[in-house]
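Most newcomers find our protein records easier to grasp once they have seen one. To make this concrete, we reproduce a full record directly below:

===
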Amino acid sequence: MILSVIIVNYNACYFLEQSLCSVRKSISSSEWLSAKGVSEIIVVDNYSTDQSREYLVPKFPEVEFIFNEQNTGYARANNLALRGANGKYILFLNPDTILTEESLSECLNFIESHPVAAALGVRMIDGAGRFLRESKRGIPFPWDAFCRLAGLSSLFPHSKLFSSYYQGFLPEHETNEVDVLSGAFLFIRKKILDEIGGFDEQFFMYAEDIDLSYRIIQAGYKNYYLASTSIIHFKGESTKKDLLYVNLFYRAMVQFIQKHFGSGLIVAILKAAIWTRNKLSVLALLFAGKLTPPAKNIKTYLLGDTVSISRIKKRIYMTGREIVTERKQAGELIFCEGENFSFKDILAEIQEIKSPVSIKIHAGGSESVVGSDSSKTLGEKIAL
């Protein structure tokens, strides 16, 4: 078997539906993977309470679903699937991602032609078309972590001195060797995982991808950022900015520093800085207030596959949205994937949008619409 795709789901039912549709399309579009029995998809559900089992299992008979009886965390759930995976290559994928038709082929072409490559990630954009800097990162050595915590990496995004955390000195549209890959899309040789082990299960969520990437380098192998293909990562759904997220994220950063850099004055100062940043983030959340619910009279413009448009047009009126005939009138733009409008077309269109508009995606044949324009807000999903 060539490829095993592993996805951990936790209450991301409709986002996962769209993601699985895109994975299915990417597999069927690939000369490497279109033959029967050369790929597999494994979904581990971490005790979701959003009807994921009832909704998704009948729709994706080719997917192997594993349902945990509790939320075991991201690392442990991935390792559970990894133990039963049969692929030469493993793709760890978030449930709130959209692949393009050539994404998997591009990864296979690159890694097969670059024997030194142990793992690779791809260029990621969010639901509004913005490049996600975590597509390529550096090891958070104390200085690099400090620059990120102090905001220096944001002030000097292309500096090698101040922005090593996000490797901002490496061009977004060029393939390069990098230090750290994102767990949202991590394509890796199975034999490397057999040698160094999977994710470290002391990390419940966050930093486990940094840790794995670092261990790959420590073992003498190389990680690559592949710029020739892009995916969408709806960060607002998978990383909800609540108190639990904040505490888990900063705790994971401290765990990583303690594991790899031990103790000492510099590490102690950095740990103090992390906890200070944690408390400031908590205060910011407390003062931010609750999210305002979406307005009911939203003007919606549909673009894409004609069959998919006609299919959802009949049902979207039930959501209180008004369908308009000109894009400039819209407050919301729904891209409809199908036979004559691909996921690649959607990704290209999203990156060309300049005016403020809420963007959603509907995969052909699916029963939902999803979107998340910002990592600071929750993703929106519409069950049709």
Remarks:
- Confidence is low (pLDDT under 50) at residues 289-295.
